[in-house]
Design brief:
Its cofactor is Zn(2+). InterPro entries: Cys-tRNA-ligase, Cys-tRNA-synt_Ia_DALR, Cys-tRNA/MSH_ligase, Rossmann-like_a/b/a_fold, tRNA-synt_1_cat_dom, tRNAsynth_Ia_anticodon-bd. Keywords: Aminoacyl-tRNA synthetase, ATP-binding, Coiled coil, Cytoplasm, Ligase, Metal-binding, Nucleotide-binding, Protein biosynthesis, Zinc. It is a single chain. This protein has 25 helices and 18 strands. The chain has 781 residues and is of the alpha/beta class. Helix content is 53%, strand content 10%. α1 links the parallel β3 and β4. The protein has a 5-stranded parallel sheet with strand order 5-4-3-10-11, sandwiched between helices. α18 runs antiparallel to α21.
Length: 781
Amino acid sequence: MSSIKQPAWAPPVPIQPEPVLKIYNSLTRTKTEFIPKSGRSVKWYNCGPTVYDASHMGHARNYVTQDVLRRIMEDYFGYDVQFVMNITDIDDKIIKRARQNHLLEKFRADTKLLDANLVSQVYTAWRAFLRNEVAVGLPSDERALFTENDGELDSQFSQIAELIQNNKEWKQECLKRDEKFDMNFTSANRTLSAVRHAESSLKAGSTSQEEAHKLIDDSQDILVLFLDEQYKSTVTDPSLSHNLASYWEKRFFDDMRRLHVRDPDTLTRVTEYMPEIITFVEKIIGNGYAYESGGSVYFDTKAFDEAPGHDYAKLEPWSKGKRDDAMVAGEGAGAPSQNNITRHSSSDFALWKATKPGEPSWDSPWGKGRPGWHIECSVMASAVLGENMDVHSGGIDLAFPHHDNEMAQSEAYHDCPTWVNYFVHTGHLHIEGLKMSKSLKNFITIDEILQKYTARQIRLAFLTQLWNAKVDFSESLMAGEVRNVESTLNNFFTNVKALVSQARDSGVTSDGYHHYEAAEKELVEKFHQSQHSFRAALCDSFNTPEALDVLRELVSRTNTYLNSRGKAVNVGVVENNARWVAKMLRMFGLGEGGSSEIGWGQESSAEGGAVDREEILMPYLRALSTFRDGVRRLAIDKGDSALKDILALCDKLRDEELIPLGVALDDQEDGKALLKLAPPSELLKARDEKRAIALAKQAKKEAAKEAERLKRLERLAKGRVDPKEIFRPPNVKEGLYGSYDGNGVPMTDGEGKELSKSARKKLGKERETQVKLHEEYLTSL
């Protein structure tokens, strides 16, 4: 081997460090560096929905946001994510809703006609609702009246209705006592109106089944509670809950796919894990952290909290010991009565609930029953992911007690100090400043919102705000920032695609000039700076608002470059910027398509199928055929205005025929049109806005012209008077002046006093003006 050696090599020194991914971790309430436990493999569990009703905007906020975070982890940072989500398909809400639906449907089917008995039942239900629900929000003295004479309830309710309508402060105080007061009053008022209508129908002899069903339908919110209280113990069919949950689970995933939310890698359902749940609870008892009482099993929070290496309520330790609404909600309506059990502590929560009449149940060592709310996630997540996971996500409202209880019982089962490494909680959703609440019926379903906005616009709305902050979803947000972002990007992609298409169609490979001057170098440098800033934003706990701003700034700089370079544009540089921006937007889930496609890409289609070539081509072919026919006709006629008429046909093709087909032709200085493809709705809107501006300008011009005409007529009317007569009656008040000079200018006033020099000078100027006006008048004749 030769004695000649290669020179020493020195490793490069980075001038810009690589950003490190940090995530806001609810376990520390700080942004902490993300360190997966096993290389680039990430175990992630996400709390799924309780399926008993239509999915709403709260679900969209949570699951679209979690989908964005998951896409960033998978498609941007390149982690191998194992994403697990559960479906709660047995729960107090599901059982109650299924039972009540069944009872109401049966009652409706069994009711064949309207009679006094039916009216009496609904009225009895109304009275019970007033005392049990509406009265909760009333002042104590008025609440007491509701418990006395039935005969006075109508008049008392009328007084309340009058107070609600005329006294806002009184109503607000009622809402402070009970946030459901307004909703309950509305239900009561609607039911009473239905009862009065039914009574009138009875008097008129109208007793049809249609009238009976109208009464039931209009009073169902109240009637179903009354029926449930009377007959709930008679409902024992477990298929009712199963069928309801299955129906709403399908609807939930239909909605998620419409929002472009990816399916979980693994989906778990509570009812499919009953043997594992029972085994899980048995082991917690064996480890000394749970006890049986009255056929139920409770987690011993005190024993767990005092054990070495364990801490209860890691997320909200200040909530420890509280038995507030959140804790009670965790136990649910199916929790056994306090009289039948003995809890060691008020913080203890149910792992297994003893069965109650009218509920589905499973056999267990402690008797028939069903799982507590919190245990399901612990069991299913452990079954799939093991004794530890990297990420656990859910809405912030689940932090306590649900997630704290999840961690406690899981760490008690695995006898480990840490079950979850990173807890990420999405922020609350407010609608026009008000927090959404399903119990208050203050919510918008996903189906309703998708009739107003697209899935992309909804996702953009969430991306413009931090994932763990409160989001205020409002008309101003959608019509303002979201619309501006979408419009800016639409225009950018449309222009760039047109330029790229034009460059390719020209077939020119080189014009002998490299088109890489200072402007191009600056834009390329901005591109690479943007890539770094974009990564830094996402490393900063998925800061999507900042990341979107980076993309918008790059688009703005690229547009500035396009406007300044004219025909000297380096299309390759612009195209590269556009492809990267599009790729990052698709990474967020804002569109579908190839990784290098310019634009949002294609929206996913549930139908798929073959393309109908004729259906696609015929509208365009008809437009061209119509244009050809018009040109041929003008050429054959050889009229004097043929050239002008042909240009008018060209304008019609551009403005009337092609725009509804999504084709825009922008006239250029060299006589060649720049061809653009864009959504027809956007082109129509832009065309109509342009026309509206033109019409407004024309109207303004015509208004100014009319104002000038009227002004001239006024001048001419004034000029009719001879200058010598303007200071004489009837043009001035009789006796105002006494004598005049030869030009008709007053010398004395009506009493013969000589006018001052300044007064005569002023009058002389007025005469000179009138001379000009009179001359203008005489000229117009």
